[in-house]
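Example 3.2
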Amino acid sequence: MEDTAQNIFNGVMPKFSSKPYDALQKCVNKIIPVEDKVCRSTSGICRDEMDKVEDWVYDKSEPIFLVAS
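Structure, written as tokens:
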């Protein structure tokens, strides 16, 4: 499996950080009780928390983060 990953990424394995995911989960858990079961966009609600962990590229037409740069 490691050989396959090395081949896919041409010998340079990307670094993975769970910090963005962890920050989003922490924010969502603070604002939406599990029993509420309401689906809401977290992009506007969690923007401040997400901006603290990554330098995001935002869509120009919507206030959503697309990718960490």
